[in-house]
């Protein structure tokens, strides 16, 4: 894979058309402190240990629960008890255990708990040529039978609005210009049981026109009472409340890229001013989830897009996420791009590999249905989703935006090469995204070359964030276990510094 990447990068010289080949050799690590590099090496090695990710990072609400069984959405982050945290508390005590986690896993992957800590993290990223993508983590499992009630979703809404305010404040922090991004999850504002009900109707041939994006958009805009005949009275009531929450989030800041993710109320209490948010151009990205929910999520995103992605609004303000590891993604991408073009709407896409591979395959096996995922990474790459979107961006220009959210060197290298061939500017409608604390050798190389690079930045208390990190570790275990190259580059840089210091010591 690395050989392929080098071949791709060597086919063009820096002087040819201005494209500069990227070298993911860790050369940009000189921008980071020795303490940061040491922590990154230790934490990445720890997280790449399969028994820790599978068992040590299992989440359980009760010591007697099976560590392999995820708990449901109604559980507060404070009630989740990760095995790693429980073990460290037994051995070291709560205070020392918390200090250890803050200095290691929390410090590596989380910006902090207070607004000041988040701003400090963002300022540090900006000095490295990277941009922030804030995330307020709250965990929810799709198949929980526990009822949460509207209060839980309203709490998530207020957390999102507070995160908007913090995201807006980051614009005043010196650093690279560009869009402010905020990460969100749709099931923070609407229940999975409603999404499954909507999905069952959307998937039927000749789905009811009652569920058209235009009708949902009109209901969001007018606040009128919406009654869908295929839903129960309870489902209709929850749908109305969910549409209201979605509308309030987008209306508050139709100008920060927001990825709908599940957030819990945080410590920040300031209330954003709608006009200020609009003036700051914050955009909204919506995360994809499980295949049992995605058709409903896409319907809701389409409703938001019908209202907010009109060119005169300066869109796209609402983006959807597409998982390249699903077999039908290329076809859906093409249909959605053509539909947006035909309707005269701006179009925004976050393209990811996908994080639920193991669970999707297991559900298909248990239900006796066809596996919806591609058989391997090569088939995922050959689906040509990236090529489709880059071509679409080059054709539609400023009304079509793309984030390439990848930790894969070859995919990133391919994207930069095609951007150059298609004449897409480095800091234009295409950007890149990686997780905070991971794949820094790729992020730094992109940032130093002038590309727009965003790091997904969770923030919050230790109790709120650890369950979120555990879920991300389990979803991205293949990425963590495949981070050997990054570990090698970190080791090389640390040895280089050690030897340089040794040679500089006077006799």
UniProtKB/TrEMBL annotation:
<keyword id="KW-0642">Proline metabolism</keyword>
<dbReference type="GO" id="GO:0010133">
    <property type="term" value="P:L-proline catabolic process to L-glutamate"/>
</dbReference>
<feature type="domain" description="Proline dehydrogenase">
    <location>
        <begin position="260"/>
        <end position="481"/>
    </location>
</feature>
<dbReference type="GO" id="GO:0004657">
    <property type="term" value="F:proline dehydrogenase activity"/>
</dbReference>
<dbReference type="Pfam" id="PF01619">
    <property type="entry name" value="Pro_dh"/>
</dbReference>
<dbReference type="GO" id="GO:0071949">
    <property type="term" value="F:FAD binding"/>
</dbReference>
<dbReference type="InterPro" id="IPR029041">
    <property type="entry name" value="FAD-linked_oxidoreductase-like"/>
</dbReference>
<comment type="similarity">
    <text>Belongs to the proline oxidase family.</text>
</comment>
<dbReference type="GO" id="GO:0005739">
    <property type="term" value="C:mitochondrion"/>
</dbReference>
<keyword id="KW-0274">FAD</keyword>
<protein>
    <recommendedName>
        <fullName>Proline dehydrogenase</fullName>
        <ecNumber>1.5.5.2</ecNumber>
    </recommendedName>
</protein>
<keyword id="KW-0285">Flavoprotein</keyword>
<dbReference type="InterPro" id="IPR002872">
    <property type="entry name" value="Proline_DH_dom"/>
</dbReference>
<dbReference type="InterPro" id="IPR015659">
    <property type="entry name" value="Proline_oxidase"/>
</dbReference>
<comment type="function">
    <text>Converts proline to delta-1-pyrroline-5-carboxylate.</text>
</comment>
<keyword id="KW-0560">Oxidoreductase</keyword>
């Amino acid at each position: 894979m690395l050989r392929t990447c080098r071949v791709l990068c060597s086919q063009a010289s820096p002087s040819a058309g201005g494209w500069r080949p990227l070298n993911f050799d860790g050369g940009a690590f000189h921008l980071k402190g020795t303490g940061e590099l040491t922590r990154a090496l230790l934490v990445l090695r720890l997280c790449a240990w399969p028994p820790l990710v599978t068992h040590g990072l299992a989440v359980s609400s009760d010591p007697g629960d099976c560590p392999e069984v995820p708990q449901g959405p109604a559980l507060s982050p404070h009630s989740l008890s990760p095995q790693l945290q429980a073990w460290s508390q037994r051995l070291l005590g709560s205070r020392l255990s918390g200090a250890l986690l803050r200095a290691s896993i929390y410090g590596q992957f989380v910006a902090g708990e207070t607004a000041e800590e988040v701003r400090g993290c963002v300022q540090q990223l900006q000095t490295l040529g990277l941009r922030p993508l804030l995330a307020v983590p709250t965990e929810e499992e799709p198949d929980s039978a526990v009822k949460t009630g509207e209060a839980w979703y309203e709490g998530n809404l207020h957390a999102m609005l507070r995160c908007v305010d913090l995201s807006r404040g980051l614009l005043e922090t010196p650093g690279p210009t560009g869009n402010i991004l905020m990460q969100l999850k749709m099931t923070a504002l609407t229940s999975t049981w409603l999404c499954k009900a909507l999905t069952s109707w959307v998937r039927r041939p000749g789905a009811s026109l009652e569920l058209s994006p235009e009708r949902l958009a009109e209901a969001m805009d007018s606040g009128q009472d919406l009654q869908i005949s295929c839903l129960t009275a309870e489902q209709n009531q929850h749908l109305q409340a969910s549409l209201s929450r979605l509308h309030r989030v987008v209306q508050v800041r139709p100008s920060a890229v927001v990825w709908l993710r599940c957030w819990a109320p945080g410590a920040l209490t300031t209330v954003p001013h709608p006009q200020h948010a609009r003036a700051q151009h914050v955009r909204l990205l919506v995360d994809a989830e499980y295949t049992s929910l995605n058709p409903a999520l896409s319907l809701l995103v389409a409703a938001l897009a019908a209202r907010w992605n009109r060119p005169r609004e300066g869109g796209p303000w609402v983006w959807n996420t597409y998982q390249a590891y699903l077999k039908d993604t290329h076809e859906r991408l093409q249909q959605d791009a053509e539909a947006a073009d035909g309707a005269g709407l701006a179009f925004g896409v976050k393209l990811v590999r996908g994080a639920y591979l193991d669970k999707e395959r297991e559900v298909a096996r248990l239900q006796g249905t066809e596996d919806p995922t591609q058989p391997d990474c090569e088939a995922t790459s050959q689906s040509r989703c990236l090529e489709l979107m880059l071509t679409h961006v080059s054709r539609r220009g400023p009304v079509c935006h793309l984030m390439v959210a990848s930790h894969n060197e070859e995919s990133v290298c391919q994207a930069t090469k095609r951007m150059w061939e298609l004449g897409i500017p480095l800091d234009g409608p295409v950007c890149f995204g990686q997780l905070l604390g991971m794949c820094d050798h790729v992020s730094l190389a992109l940032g130093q070359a002038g590309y727009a690079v965003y790091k997904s930045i969770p923030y919050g208390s230790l109790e709120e964030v650890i369950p979120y990190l555990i879920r991300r570790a389990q979803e991205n275990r293949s990425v963590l276990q495949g981070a050997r190259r990054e570990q090698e580059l970190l080791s090389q840089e640390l040895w280089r510094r050690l030897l340089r210091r040794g040679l500089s010591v006077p006799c």
